[in-house]
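Appendix C: a fully annotated inverse folding record. The material below is reproduced so that readers can follow the format used throughout the book. The structure is listed first as tokens, followed by the designed sequence.
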């Protein structure tokens, strides 16, 4: 938080995303605040006299949170995997959408499959030597991903 050139009060912010190496700037008038500690979440006072609870809720500024796996392969990736269905964890039913990317060779283009609604079981038919799974929340509230299972067999190249 810092004052812009035209203000004597904090009316601007800057944040740095270490993972992406990206800076974000914006306007947010806050004159006082405290980090979490005594309170569950950070609290700040706006120039309008209201006290705001920060880092609360599930609005992600139009960005959907997701979890993505690393490559899933049969053996050392020597076999083509034919996926027939996904068996999601029972506590994530209806809360998440599942999508996959697959490729036959490390240098080949990825093909996308889904999104599929998580129900038990979920029909999903595709193949590849290397498959990645992405789980995205369908609801703006806490969601979880438990043990996911793929019904898959070793297949030929066609």
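Designed amino acids, in order:
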């Amino acid at each position: 938080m810092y004052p812009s050139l035209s203000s004597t009060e904090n009316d601007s912010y800057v944040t740095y995303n270490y993972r992406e190496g990206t800076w974000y700037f914006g306007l947010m008038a806050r004159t006082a605040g405290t980090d979490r500690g005594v309170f569950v979440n950070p609290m700040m006072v706006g120039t309008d006299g209201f006290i705001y609870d920060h880092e609360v809720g599930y609005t992600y500024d139009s960005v959907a949170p997701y979890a993505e796996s690393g490559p899933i392969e049969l053996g050392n990736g020597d076999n083509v995997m034919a996926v027939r269905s996904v068996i999601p964890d029972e506590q994530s039913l209806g809360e998440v959408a599942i999508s996959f990317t697959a490729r036959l060779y490390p240098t080949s283009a990825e093909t996308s499959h889904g999104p599929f609604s998580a129900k038990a079981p979920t029909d999903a038919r595709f193949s590849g030597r290397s498959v990645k799974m992405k789980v995205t929340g369908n609801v703006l509230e806490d969601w979880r991903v438990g043990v996911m299972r793929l019904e898959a067999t070793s297949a030929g190249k066609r």
